[in-house]
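Table S4 entry, Alpha-hydroxy acid oxidase.
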Amino acid sequence: MPDLQAPPAPALCLDDFEGLAAGVLPVEVREFVAGGSGTETTLRLNRSALDGVTVVPRVLAGVAEAEVGCRLVGGQVGMPVVVAPMAYQRLVHPGGELLLARAAAAAGVPYVISTLSSFPLEEIAEVAPSWFQLYWLRDRAVVESLIDRAEAAGCGALMVTVDVPVMGRRLRDVRNGFALPEDVVAANLVGARSEAHVGVPGLSAVAAHTASAFEPAVSWQDLEWLRSKTKLPLFLKGILDPRDAVRAVQVGADGIVVSNHGGRQLDGAVASVNALPRIVDAVGKECEVLLDSGIRSGTDVLRALALGASGVLIGRPLLWALAVDACGEALELLRKELGDAMLLAGCANVQDAARLTTGRA
């Protein structure tokens, strides 16, 4: 008798894609994607804090179907979701950023191209409406070149990550001596093959590359310079303190991404969702506020909207889905979950969701 193996069960929620990806990815790549910094306290806290947010539903709303589309950064989007910037997506699938960007375009949501994307930003922007995420590099001429390239490629916004003066100590990568394979490079940077490809036991090669390439002493003055160099809408990603959010608006930011980098930077940092309400109170009438870190479901999106966010960024679940050629399915599942959650909460649209009240479990 032939050895018949049952096909994998379909994904019923976004978390299911991680299990599916485990069947196709090497252990060290899975750990690079899944891991956080230090003892991963903040990584775990992001999830528990979101689970602790309760929403008070409204009833008898007379709604048969919720409209999940909305306006974000002045344009219409299919749902209040942005695909987060994530580096080196060819690690999980040969199609990498191009495949995920196409799925984002089909879902009608913005795709954020990472400075460390494994395809050139121009190629990615050709297949999907995109924003560009900027890491601040030691060579300001390269920073300026990346801004010019993003504008020329038609990127709709610029998102500057401000919480990586140095890379957090990610112990899974250190233990694995993690390095990039030769065919995965930071395609936007000159001399793309770098320290990131040199494996050393007990060291993270990706962290070594970050240390040599990133400027640790970036300041508000640098952001003022950046604001003077581009007319693109400007988001700052990695804000957790309301005082920093206020300063960001003062230097001309159009949006804030409340984020602890998915638990991958300062271990012990506040959960992003716990920081969100104070930042909304401080600047929510002056700029868009997005929530990042830990989003795993349509219910999480509803929680963020009820707490005052304009929308959310979602990252890891889409990398797991990318690994198994299921980016489109993952985004469609998220859209359905959000629609169901809004309907159950008595919301006809995203504006209604923003008027819900919340509590703590």
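The chain has one domain: 16-360.
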